[in-house]
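Q: May I have one protein plus its fold?
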Amino acid sequence: MTRHFLRDDDISPAEQAEILDLALELKRDRFAVRPLTGPQTVAVIFDKSSTRTRVSFAVGIADLGGSPLIISTANSQLGGKETASDTARVLERQVAAIVWRTYGQAGLEEMALGTTVPVVNALSDDFHPCQLLADLLTIREHRGDLAGQTLAFLGDGACNMGQSYLLAGATAGMHVRIASPAGYTPTDQVVADATAIAARTGGSVALFTDPREAVTGVDVVITDTWVSMGKEEEKATRLGDLGQYRVDAELMGLAKPGAHFMHCLPADRGYEVTADVIDGPQSIIWDEAENRLHAQKALLVWLLAQNAA
């Protein structure tokens, strides 16, 4: 059966660790593994605008010896005259893998169903699993073993980053805290899934409404934009609802001494985070952004190897 990566818990704790180990190796030697030499092509499809995802996948595929085929759905039949499953059946005969940055999770699931090449979720409304691999890699580099680390995600807990932190953090054996107001909490199903994973890995999952309580004593403080793509018409409401979750120096001061700050970018300085924090000594956002390259390369290498076995 073809292995895909559509959400963070599509891989086991051991598999997650294996991918992160490989990412560290590829960061030390970018061209050590080249399974796409030929070059083989990887289709990278975008429904949404992108900087880090587009650059890191294009560069990473080239590093692995392959050729990235960047496709905009605005200039293709996908989502218009053609279904995701039909598009996948066309692409699978010509490409080694399919990467898709989209809106609905259901489209990714449809594309992966019965597809003979791996499908990778490069972002959906529900999850952002490639970003989480990069984030876990960054935490591991700066703080050591992931198991037992405590992190707090502040803001819109129902966004793809909040939900992916629950699943990926629990898979890594971390203690994950989500602080958000009513109406911005992760789905009950994702919380239940993460809780079940944490019970097996020694991690934990906790939901908070008070950001100060959530941040107290944690190792890593994380936030994300309050106005994600597709939510622009809700900006005024969101800024009002989420204002108390802004990460500033005072809030960072409640975290463990030496705690780190993370943000997947792009950031709205002055809204979800103040400039002195995101540009300050506790911030590791640039390592986090770079690690998209290494983590995604490792993921592709791992998926290709799994599907060749």
User: Anything to note?
Assistant: The two ends are 10 Å apart (CA to CA). Residues 188 and 194 are 10 Å apart (CA to CA).
